[in-house]
Amino acid sequence: MPIDAAKALAAEPRTGEISWNSKDVQLYHLGIGAAANPDRHSPATDPDELRYTLESRLHVLPSFATVAGSGSPGVISGLSMPGIEVDLARVLHGGQSLVIHRPIPAAGTATATNRIAALYDKVKAAVLVLRTEVADAEGPLWTNDAQIFIRGEGGWGGDRGPSARLEPPVGEPERTVERPIREDQALLYRLSGDWNPLHADPEFAKVAGFERPILHGLCTYGMTLKAVVDTLLGGDVTRVRSYGTRFAGVVYPGETLRIRMWPGAGTVRVAVSAVERDDAPVLADTVVEHT
């Protein structure tokens, strides 16, 4: 069987050194739409956007942790772990959660430890949870969990796992913003390390069951966090403590994200949809915890 659950869960963690610099951070920020904020006049030179794009003012959006120094995000690296041997065309990113222990520096070197934290049997699919823990000389920086959905690989009788579904937010959102996706957004975002051809190659996308290449789920993830930080947290990236979501649907380059926000005590509930497809769900069960 392509997935050997016992072997995967028993595998020793993989540890390696990662590093990043201000250019990596700037490229990531541009890939998630920095300097293109439609809510701002002349966004490319707006001081609030320059914090994402100009090295002398640079701060780091916490979702950068999903690409920092790895060159290969959880969806790809998780498939190279022992006991996992599957066709990339059958793989989807099911969800992502991130805990920030300290603000991420604009440049750094750290140790990343990867392991398969869980493997769930959904009968018609398998869900793999790849955990990445990152620390530098001063201590822990972040913990990242990627939930990887592998179609056609369930049915071995394993644990079905917990339900990730949350009760929907109550009432109308307090804030709603829209963020356009450029036609070349996926091509720019993939330069931060996710080279999956699903996001660039039309033929590969068709084999995977899509009409054309789709946007990276983690690009939508980053765009959404940036919208929350800019809209409700005063642009202060250091206030973010954790951020989790479930990928509920795809986004195609050229579409528009509608990001609805329900702020509470230390949390923001978020729902994201695709405007042009009658508000088709994109991100669900999304929560940002903050100070």
Commentary on this structure:
This is MaoC/PaaZ C-terminal domain-containing protein. Helices cover 19% and strands 33% of the residues. The protein has 291 residues and is of the alpha+beta class. The protein has a ten-stranded antiparallel β-sheet with strand order 1-3-4-5-2-7-10-9-8-6. A hairpin with a 3-residue loop joins strand 3 (108-121) and strand 4. The longest helix is centred in the last third of the chain and has 16 residues, at 217-232. The radius of gyration is 18 Å and the shape is globular. The mean pLDDT is 91.
Ordered list of secondary-structure elements with their pairings:
Blueprint: H1 5-10, E1 14-20, H2 22-31, H3 47-53, H4 74-77, E2 91-100, E3 108-121, E4 125-136, E5 139-151, E6 175-180, H5 185-189, H6 202-207, H7 217-232, E7 240-247, E8 256-263, E9 267-274, E10 280-290
Antiparallel strand pairs: 1-3, 2-5, 2-7, 3-4, 4-5, 6-8, 7-10, 8-9, 9-10
